[in-house]
Amino acid sequence: MVRIAGGIAETFCEDIPEYIKNFCYSRLDYTIKSITAEFCRKYHISLYKYQ
Fold first, then answer.
1. What angle (nearest 5°) sits at the alpha carbon of residue 17, between those of residues 15 and 10?
2. At what angle do helices 2-13 and 30-42 cross, to 10 degrees?
3. Of 1, 27, 42, which is closest to residue 50 (Cα–Cα)?
4. Sorting pLDDT into bands at 50, 70 and 90, what band is 8?
5. What global pTM score does this model have?
6. What's the CA angle centered on 46, arms 22 and 5, to 5 degrees?
7. Distance of CA 30 to the CA centre of its chain
8. What residue spans of 1-51 are helical by DSSP H?
């Protein structure tokens, strides 16, 4: 849900600072991080900056 909210916010705000993205990603549990990583691999989205 955080990723969805972030995607929506980024649409309206143009760009969310990296430190906010990194902080939010660091708060996710292992299961959600795994799902996020799989989604990013499937749709060729770079995840390196969120780890």
1. 30
2. 50
3. 27
4. confident
5. 0.52
6. 55
7. 13
8. 2-13, 18-26, 30-42
